[in-house]
Design goal:
24 helices, three-stranded antiparallel sheet, elongated, alpha+beta
Length: 734
C-alpha cells in the first residue's frame, strides 16, 4: 500500500467513516477542470471574513491576519507545477470525490475525536507547559500549540507515533506558500503590499521560534527554524476552529483537511458531541464522481495566497461582490497643496507661493489626524505622539531652520545612542519628517516628558536635535522596540515618509521593509464596495483636503445644551479634553448642524463641494501613485492570464499575477470613482452658474449648453461600466 492507502486504513481502523468518498490524484489533463471548479461564489455582500462559524477559518486578532482553517486552495497536497520549482512526488494534486450519489443533509465524513490533534494536546507537552508558564506574547498562540505537538510527536515518538500515517501524507515542502517562494517568484508581486505581509509573517514566525527557544531550549533540538516555519504553515492552512464539549479550541483533522475550496459552500462541518466525532455534512445533493468541496470562507485573494498558497481566478460572489482588497495608504502632507485652497480660504496660495512650502495648518491637521491614536504604551492620546505638541513644534522648526541648501544634513540623537545622518534634498518636508521621527523614537517606550534643543555646528548646515527623557530606566524590551521603530523610520524616511501624493510609492523586488511606521501613516483596506472601510477612506481624504475653515469645522464640537455663560460649549469641550472654541466663529455656526467629528474617521458626509473636490483629486493622485509601483498595467495582466503556457495553472507565477490583477482592479475602481465625481462637480458648478444667471435675468443659448445633473445621472445609470457604488455616491451623496 502507498502512504495514502495506509493513511485511510489507519483512519478506518480507528472508527472513521468516509465510505462514500475516495481520494483522487490529478494529472495535468485534469488541472484545468479542477481550476475551473475551484471558484468562490456566495450571496453575502460583506467585507467580514468568514461570516459563518461553520467555515473553517475563525477570526483571529493577530497582526498577521491569519485565520484558522483547512486546506490550501486548489489542493492542499501539491507543490504547484511551476517553472521555477523542482517537481517531485510531493507535487501530486489530490481531491476528494463522491463514489456514489450523496443526498443532501448526509454526513459524508466522520473523524473520531481520538484522531484529532487539538490545542490542548500541544499544551500538555513539556514545551507546551513551559510556554504556558512563561506567558509569552506569541503571534498565534493556538497555532503554536498545534505546531509544538506536531513537531514534538514526530521527533520524539517517531515511528511509534499514533499519528505517523497522518504525518506521512503531509507535504514535505510548501513551495506554493509565499513565505517559501524564491526571490524570482517574489518579484512577480512587485508593487503589491503582500510583499510586506510576507515579510511580516516571516518575522513573526522567527520571533516566535527564538522566543520559545529562550524559555524552552529543547525546541531547538526537535526543530530548526525552517522546520518551525513548515509546521506553522501546515497548521495555518489546515486547522479548524471547533467547539468540543462546550470549549473553543482548534484542531488538525486528518482527511477532512483534504477537501479543496469552492464557493458557494456545498458542505458544512462541526464537532458532534453525541458522536464524539468531527463531521462533514452535505448541504446539497452531490452526484457520483463529483469533487466534494469545503468553503474556506469569503476572503480576499491576498489571504488565500498568503495562508494557503493559491489565488482564485474569479473571486466573485453570486451577487457580483468581490472581496478582493487593496490597502490605500494616506499620511499628513506637510507641504501646501493647491486643491485645499481652491476658491480662497485662510491659507490660500498666491502666484508666488512655493507648492512644496510648509503647510501652516500642518500641526492642526496632524493633531486631528492622529486624535484617538494609541501611543507606545497603548494609551490613547490627542495627538498620537509621545512628545508634547510644543516639543513637536520645536523639533520641526529646528529641522526646517537647519535646511539652508540642498546639501543640508539632519542629525537625530536619542538616549538610546541612535545617531542617524541622512543626506537630504532641498525638500524641507523630508528634513522635518526626520526630525519628528527622532522625537517619536525617543519617546516611544516611555511616558516621560521630552525636551528639545537646537545646536548649530557653526556653518549653518547641520541641526542637531537632542532628546532627553525624564525616565532614564527604560527596559531592554522597550529599547528593542524603540530601535525597531527608529530603524524603520530612518530607512524609509526618504522613500516613504514624504507624504506628497504626487510622488510614486517605491517598490522592491524582494519582500522589503514594512513602511507602516512612517509618520502618521494610515492604511485602509478597501474593496469594490461602499462599505465601512470606504467611508473611513473618504473621511480621511476630507481631512487631508481641508483648508483652515474646514479643519476648524471638523475638529470643533457643536453647542450642547449645557455650558457656562462665557462659552456655551466650554463644559462639553472640557469633558472631552479639548480647548474651548469661539462659538461665534463661522466654522462653529456650521457645526451647529453637523455631528461632532471626534476623529479623522468620522467625517462621513461631504463638508462642501470644494473640500469634496479636493478629496477626490487627492484620491486620484494616491491611486495613480500606487499603480505606478507595479511592473505592468491591468490590461497587460488580463492578457497575460490568457497565456497558460507562460502562466501555467496552479503555478506560483499565475497566482501572483491573479493577486496583483485583483489589487489593480480595486485601484482602478477608486480611480474611476474619483474621476466620475470630479465630472459631476463640474456639472453641479455649471448648474449653479446657470441658476445665478437666470436669477439675475440673463438669457441666452449658453445657459442650456451644458448637460443637467439629472441627465448625467440618468446616463450613468444606463452605463454598465459605472459601478452602482459610484452611481449611488454621485446621485445621493453629491
Amino acid at each position: 500500500m502507498d502512504a495514502y492507502e495506509i493513511f485511510e486504513d489507519w483512519l478506518v481502523k480507528n472508527g472513521a467513516e468516509f465510505s462514500r468518498l475516495e481520494l483522487r490524484s490529478y494529472d495535468d489533463s485534469l488541472n484545468s477542470t479542477v481550476s475551473a471548479c475551484t471558484s468562490i461564489d456566495d450571496s453575502s455582500q460583506s467585507t467580514t471574513i468568514d461570516s459563518s462559524s461553520e467555515e473553517k477559518k475563525e477570526c483571529k486578532s493577530s497582526s498577521s491576519e491569519e485565520r484558522n482553517h483547512g486546506n490550501h486552495g486548489n489542493n492542499r497536497h501539491n507543490n504547484h507545477p511551476d517553472p521555477d520549482s523542482n517537481l517531485d512526488k510531493d507535487s501530486e494534486m489530490r481531491g476528494v470525490h463522491a463514489k456514489i450519489e450523496i443526498p443532501a443533509d448526509t454526513i459524508c465524513v466522520a473523524i473520531p475525536r481520538k484522531c484529532l490533534i487539538t490545542v490542548e494536546m500541544g499544551q500538555a507537552t513539556q514545551i507546551g507547559q513551559v510556554i504556558l508558564r512563561s506567558d509569552l506574547d506569541l503571534d498565534a498562540p493556538k497555532h503554536i500549540f498545534l505546531m509544538i505537538f506536531l513537531l514534538y510527536d514526530r521527533k520524539v515518538n517517531g515511528e511509534s507515533s499514533f499519528f505517523k500515517p497522518y504525518y506521512d501524507i503531509l507535504p514535505k515542502t510548501l513551495s506554493n506558500i509565499p513565505i517559501f517562494w524564491k526571490e524570482s517568484e517574489l518579484d512577480y508581486l512587485r508593487g503589491s503590499y503582500l510583499l510586506h505581509q510576507i515579510n511580516d509573517r516571516v518575522d513573526a514566525i522567527t520571533e516566535d521560534y527564538y522566543a520559545i527557544c529562550n524559555v524552552a531550549p529543547q525546541l531547538a533540538h526537535i526543530a530548526t527554524l525552517e522546520e518551525f516555519k513548515w509546521a506553522r504553515m501546515c497548521v495555518c492552512s489546515r486547522n479548524f476552529g471547533l467547539q468540543i464539549d462546550g470549549h473553543r479550541t482548534s484542531a488538525l483533522v486528518p482527511h477532512a483537511d483534504m477537501l479543496n475550496h469552492h464557493r458557494p459552500r456545498e458542505t458544512k462541518w462541526s464537532f458532534d458531541d453525541d458522536l464524539q466525532s468531527f463531521t462533514i455534512t452535505t448541504l446539497q445533493s452531490i452526484s457520483a464522481g463529483a469533487q466534494v468541496y469545503d468553503s474556506y470562507g469569503q476572503k480576499c485573494n491576498h489571504r488565500f495566497l498568503l495562508n494557503y498558497g493559491f489565488a482564485v481566478e474569479d473571486n466573485s460572489e453570486l451577487d457580483g461582490f468581490c472581496p478582493n482588497e487593496v490597502p490605500i495608504e494616506l499620511t499628513v502632507d506637510m507641504t501646501k497643496w493647491s486643491t485645499r485652497n481652491e476658491n480662497g480660504g485662510e491659507n490660500s496660495n498666491n502666484s508666488n507661493d512655493d507648492e512644496n512650502s510648509i503647510d501652516p495648518l500642518f500641526e492642526a491637521r496632524y493633531e486631528f489626524w492622529t486624535r484617538g491614536d494609541c501611543d507606545g504604551s497603548g494609551s490613547t492620546t490627542s495627538s498620537g505622539l509621545g512628545p508634547s505638541t510644543h516639543a513637536f513644534s520645536v523639533a520641526m522648526g529646528a529641522a526646517l531652520g537647519a535646511v539652508v541648501d540642498s546639501n543640508a544634513n539632519v542629525h537625530v540623537n536619542t538616549q538610546h545612542t541612535l545617531r542617524s545622518q541622512l543626506s537630504l534634498s532641498s525638500t524641507t518636508a523630508k528634513a522635518a519628517l526626520d526630525a519628528v521621527a527622532g522625537i517619536i523614537s525617543g519617546e516611544a517606550g516611555d511616558n516621560g516628558s521630552a525636551s528639545t534643543a537646537l545646536k548649530d555646528n557653526g556653518n549653518g548646515n547641520v541641526a542637531e536635535i537632542a532628546l532627553t527623557n525624564t525616565n532614564a530606566h527604560a527596559s531592554s524590551t522597550t529599547q528593542e522596540n524603540v530601535s525597531t521603530h527608529v530603524k524603520s523610520r530612518t530607512i524609509t524616511a526618504t522613500a516613504v515618509a514624504t507624504p506628497n501624493p504626487s510622488n510614486p510609492r517605491p517598490h522592491s523586488s524582494s519582500v522589503g521593509s514594512d513602511d507602516s511606521s512612517a509618520l502618521a501613516l494610515k492604511r485602509v483596506r478597501v474593496c469594490i464596495s461602499s462599505n465601512e472601510n470606504t467611508r473611513v477612506l473618504f473621511s480621511m481624504l476630507r481631512v487631508l483636503a481641508a483648508n483652515g475653515e474646514d479643519l476648524r469645522a471638523m475638529s470643533t464640537a457643536p453647542t450642547l445644551p449645557f455650558g457656562d455663560s462665557g462659552c456655551s460649549v466650554y463644559l462639553s469641550r472640557a469633558l472631552r479634553g479639548y480647548t474651548a472654541a469661539n462659538p461665534d466663529s463661522a466654522a462653529f455656526v456650521t457645526m451647529q448642524h453637523a455631528a461632532f467629528f471626534r476623529t479623522c474617521r468620522d467625517i462621513r458626509n461631504p463638508i462642501n463641494l470644494r473640500n469634496e473636490r479636493g478629496a477626490m483629486q487627492y484620491l486620484m493622485k494616491v491611486v495613480a501613485s500606487q499603480l505606478e509601483a507595479y511592473t505592468c498595467s491591468l490590461a497587460q495582466d488580463i492578457v497575460d492570464l490568457r497565456d497558460e503556457e507562460v502562466y501555467p495553472m496552479f503555478s506560483n507565477r499565475r497566482h501572483a499575477k491573479i493577486q496583483v490583477r485583483g489589487e489593480k482592479e480595486v485601484l482602478h475602481h477608486f480611480g474611476q470613482w474619483a474621476q466620475t465625481a470630479l465630472h459631476i462637480f463640474d456639472v453641479i458648478d455649471n448648474e449653479l452658474i446657470m441658476e445665478r444667471k437666470t436669477d439675475s435675468g440673463q438669457t441666452g443659448s449658453s445657459l442650456n449648453s451644458h448637460a443637467s445633473f439629472d441627465s448625467v445621472i440618468h446616463a450613468m445609470d444606463d452605463d454598465d461600466a459605472i459601478h452602482f457604488t459610484i452611481l449611488r455616491y454621485c446621485s445621493d451623496v453629491l
